[in-house]
Amino acid sequence: METPKTGAPTVVVAGAGLAGFCAAIAARDAGARVILLEKGGPEDVGGNAAFSAGLFLFPYAGASDLLSITGDFEEGLEADSIEAPAYTQAEYGAELMSMSNGEADADLVDALAARSLDTMRWLTTKGMNFTFGRSLGPEVRDGVLHVPPGQCLQTTGNGLSRGYEMFAPLIEYAETHGIEVRWSTPLTQIHRTDGHITSVVAGGHKIRCDALVVATGGFQADAELRREHLGPAMAEAVLRGTRHSTGDGILAALTAGADRSGAWGRCHSAAVDVTMPSPRRSDDDPPAPLHGFWLGVLVNRTGQRFVDEGPGPWVKHYSKMGKAILGQPGSDAYEVFDQRAASRVANEFAGAAVPLTADTLEDLAHQMGVPVAEFVATIERFNGACRPSPVIAEAATTDGVEPPKSRWAAPIDEPPFVAYHARPGVTFTFGGVRIDADGHALDHTRTPVPGLYAAGEATGGLFYGDYPGGAALMRAAVFGRTAGASAAAEAAHCPPDAPQTH
Ligand SMILES: Cc1cc2nc3c(=O)[nH]c(=O)nc-3n(C[C@H](O)[C@H](O)[C@H](O)COP(=O)(O)OP(=O)(O)OC[C@H]3O[C@@H](n4cnc5c(N)ncnc54)[C@H](O)[C@@H]3O)c2cc1C
């Protein structure tokens, strides 16, 4: 069965995640007929974004920019006024560059920095809702909400994995604006005629098109590709998100002539709780990411600390913890807290994860299965390096212990003690299709492949060693939107009766 060619130029978008929905909506708004192909069923909508914390990082000039996106505040953050120092495009770009160790493509960095704020406003016109989230560090003092620079806004919903809720308005927009969504229809092949993309094969059928946007996510869900590119240890990592991002869309684009780019040997990883399985459906909870590490200490199987647990705000550093755990014996670790932090960790960061609890450090060590004497000595050494304090203050550092804890250092001495068992989880891969700032897929000579676009995790070139939390959803939205608009513009210039030879 072949899809008939209609009068309107046709843009096919593969992948119903955030990048795919943004591409489909932008192409439709630009007048194209749009077919959105999704490998999974409706229960899989949203790809990785459905499991995400819904954090979006973008530059802003001050409180009025933030308030132009939302006036919604999580409990405890309502205030008479807001103090929000600017987080400029230059700072955003510099942060992306420094977290990629200078390897990121400067054109992509500049485009993301320049288009993010406008794209946040655009998302709200498509029905998405944002809020000032509590877990990221804003605080009300003397009736003023203080928002630290480089702050994310968060999609509305409950808990950390609230991204699922962003898709109801996007689906409604697609349905009411004539975007044809085809579930259980994976893209498998891409065909070119005289160099230009003319059709794809999806779900066993050929579909004609004038332009294609590949938004099929990374390759993190394929254990063999993980082993090949990231090494044997990451092949065993717990998958944090969608099981459908197996890299097939990326490989189809490469076969069709696109070049690869980015850090194929690196990925985003976060420590996750071992008691929770990888998600199956989009409304499942992903394994809890244990972002509360900064409120306690991490110890390995030998009972030793091995990393600075307080390098800075968790949202900028959590992926380092997954990588640090990966390097430990057995590739696992325990996150240990006392009563100063236990309830905050349980309420804000641990989701449905089940901790071990004990009245003494010795009993906790027994339950963890780590050498008792070493573990107790580690905690005593750490406690001796902290200043006594009933609270966990950001400015508090350790003195005379290795590794240091640079912030939020407080003794672990108020029982009962709790420990969460953590393993590295894989969030998404960093290598993919090479694109330019218009979302056009480039070949190995850096020339656009006519009619071929890509966006989101399916692309490389932006994230390398690490990335600032909130920039991945922002990338999906900005480049999805850009690719969809560019694809529609190119499709509009295709001759209506171009030969269809495949
Ligand atoms: C647990 C978790 C928490 C996160 N939290 C945040 C956060 O708070 N902030 C942030 O910035 N980032 C976060 N991220 C990362 C962010 O969610 C992703 O980078 C982003 O959603 C990627 O969007 P995407 O559209 O490119 O890919 P995806 O969302 O993965 O979408 C890809 C879609 O393509 C489909 N697909 C795959 N292959 C095919 C095919 N062959 N044909 C058709 N369809 C196909 C998949 O089923 C999927 O629906 C998080 C990720 C995870 C896993």
UniProtKB/TrEMBL annotation:
InterPro entries in the record: FAD-dep_OxRdtase_2_FAD-bd, FAD-oxidoreductase_2, FAD/NAD-bd_sf, Succ_DH/fumarate_Rdtase_cat_sf
Cofactor(s) listed: FAD
Keyword line: FAD, Flavoprotein, Oxidoreductase
Keyword Oxidoreductase: yes
Domain FAD-dependent oxidoreductase 2 FAD-binding: 11-471
Name assigned to this protein: FAD-dependent tricarballylate dehydrogenase TcuA
Organism in which the protein naturally occurs: Terrabacter terrigena
